[in-house]
Write a structure and sequence with these properties.
The complex is a heterodimer of chains A (232) and B (109). Chain A has 232 residues and is an alpha/beta fold. Chain A is 23% helix and 25% strand. Chain A has five helices and eleven strands. Chain A has helices at residues 14-24, 66-76, 86-93, 150-158, 218-231, and strands at residues 2-7, 27-32, 43-46, 81-84, 100-102, 110-118, 134-141, 145-147, 162-166, 178-182, 188-191. In chain A, the strands form two sheets. Chain A has a nine-stranded mixed beta sheet, with helices on both faces. In chain A, strands 5-8 form a two-stranded antiparallel ribbon. Chain A is globular, with a radius of gyration of 16 Å. Chain B has a three-stranded antiparallel beta sheet with strand order 2-1-3, covered by helices on one side. Chain B has one domain (3-12, 41-108). Chain B contains four helices and three strands, in the order E-H-E-H-E-H-H. Chain B has 109 residues and is of the alpha+beta class. Chain B has helices spanning 17-28, 53-67, 90-93, 103-108; strands at residues 3-10, 41-46, 73-80. The longest helix of chain B is centred in the middle third of the chain and has 15 residues, at 53-67. Chains A and B meet through strand 5 of A and helix 1 of B.
């Protein structure tokens, strides 16, 4: 399986996402924002970072990139797409998922290992989790507060499109403690925390067992591989 | 060259952490008469072409679709630079189709 990772001007975590894909057992394919070519990949990751310096709005200018024409088309046809942090902001700006992200309510950039609950295990990126599973992966952003109108929020909750919820603390003022959402079909998932930073012992969050041993992020990538094998 | 101004503000019902931080600073300086600050954006688009209704309408579309995100922001105003919203012509200043500089200002000069 080949999973594309799109690099935008100002992307930061594209290499980590590629590494996570490799560790999960798939082949990462580097894609460039200025191209109109997905190189035949089976799934896509929009990585974290600060594309275009967060000018205009986070992810806004990147969501208008040449390659986004193909990304949006593929997403609407059912290709699995994962947006992480700045990638989530791009998905929201491109209207591939509902809602929007604004500055953290405390006004500060937050970097912490964040506990989440997996609320929906039927998406393309969460099939490897158990319903209600609690995971810990890094969170690091300045504008991660999830906002949506009351009607949109009710629909997301009612349709099971809230995929991840912050546990123990709401770090940024997100409505309903929402950390990540999916589209109606479940192939497009966006979240603010970073699964690609918790895929290898020695480099992940601390666990009760050992320092930096957390690898809860790996299941995002193994899930999509499994899903594609089953679907093929 | 005509300049078109677009003003965008965070939605009133959403928390504005930038405004909150500025309001906090004013409070610390003893400027206690100000009960709130909200921070928005002003865009100035310079146009190579006539200042007419058509270009204003096009900027309105750009304002709605690119310069703002309707989930979190509102477009407050799209107007030609020069109008001020004051004086006898105030009502006409921000009306779609006002393609002149502010008449009150011009008269005062």
């Amino acid at each position: 399986m080949r999973i594309g990772v799109v690099t935008f001007p100002g992307s930061l975590d594209d290499r980590d996402a590629q590494r996570a894909i490799r560790l999960a057992g798939a082949e990462p394919v580097a894609l460039w924002h200025g191209d109109h070519d997905l190189h035949g990949v089976d799934a896509l990751v929009l990585p974290g970072g600060f594309s275009y310096g967060d000018y205009l709005r986070c992810g806004a200018i990147a969501s208008l990139s040449p390659i986004m024409t193909e990304v949006i088309d593929a997403a609407k046809k059912g290709m699995p797409v994962l947006g992480i942090c700045n990638g989530f902001q791009m998905l929201a700006e491109a209207h591939l998922v509902d809602g929007g992200l604004i500055r953290n309510d405390g006004g500060t950039f937050i970097r912490r290992d964040q506990k989440l609950r997996v609320e929906n295990t039927s998406t393309d990126w969460t099939g490897g989790f158990t319903p209600g599973q609690e995971i810990t992966i890094p969170l690091k952003n300045g504008e991660g507060a999830f906002m949506a109108s009351a009607e949109t929020l009710a629909r997301l909750e009612g349709e099971g499109q809230v995929v991840f919820r912050y546990l123990e603390t709401n770090p940024n003022g997100s409505l309903n403690d929402i950390a990540g959402v999916s589209n109606a079909r479940g192939n497009v998932v966006g979240l603010m925390p970073h699964p690609e930073h918790a895929v290898e012992p020695g480099f992940g969050p601390d666990t009760a067992a050992a320092m930096r041993s957390g690898v809860d992020g790996l299941a995002f990538f193994t899930s999509v591989i499994e899903r594609t094998l089953v679907g093929a | 060259m005509p300049t078109i101004v677009v003003e965008v503000m965070p939605k009133a019902e959403l928390l504005d952490p930038q405004g909150k931080a500025v309001a906090g600073a004013l409070g610390r300086l003893g400027k206690t008469q100000f009960t709130g600050v909200r921070v928005g954006k002003r865009f100035e688009l310079t146009v190579d072409g006539p200042a007419d209704d058509a270009i204003l309408a096009e900027v309105q579309v750009i304002a709605d679709e690119i310069l703002s995100n309707s989930v979190i922001e509102d477009v407050i105003s799209v107007h030609f630079a020069g109008v001020d919203g004051f004086g006898p012509s105030a009502n006409a200043d921000f009306a779609t189709g006002n393609v002149t500089l502010d008449t009150d200002v011009l008269e005062a000069k």
